[in-house]
Amino acid sequence: MRSTDGEPPQPIVTLLQRVVDLLVQLIGGKIELTTRQLTASANEASRRAGLAFAGGLTLLLGAALLADAAVVALAPLVSSLALRLLLVAAPVCLVGGRLLVRALAPSARGGSHPAMDERDGYRGHAQDHQYVARGADRIPAEHTD
After folding, report:
1. Which of 13, 14, 31, 87 has a Cα-to-Cα distance from 58 of 20 to 30 A?
2. Per-domain boundaries in the chain
3. CA 104 vs CA 23, 57, 98, 130: distances in Å
């Protein structure tokens, strides 16, 4: 059913134009939906980050006031102000340092993972090979099973 000049019949051209128009609408709708979802996710993340910052700042202020109260409370026991400050600051610094090291270390529950060819130190390397048949590495590539 071709026309005499070699062009496809008119209904096929119309159908192809309609398919292209529908694909453009579909892709445009997907892009708009993705944009809205990303915007909503970014707004939620920024809201949570703001709340976390405000909570951290409030916690820092409370910890400073508690440390000050501890220094004052140690006055009857330790007469030197410098020694009282040291007694209160040392445990705080140790806990803060441990938390910082823990935050910067790769996590065993997710987040940062070791490279694929490195051992992760978590339950040995057996988790990678529990489903591999023994001797499977010796099967030739062109086996006839």
Report:
1. 87
2. 10-103
3. 46, 21, 10, 30
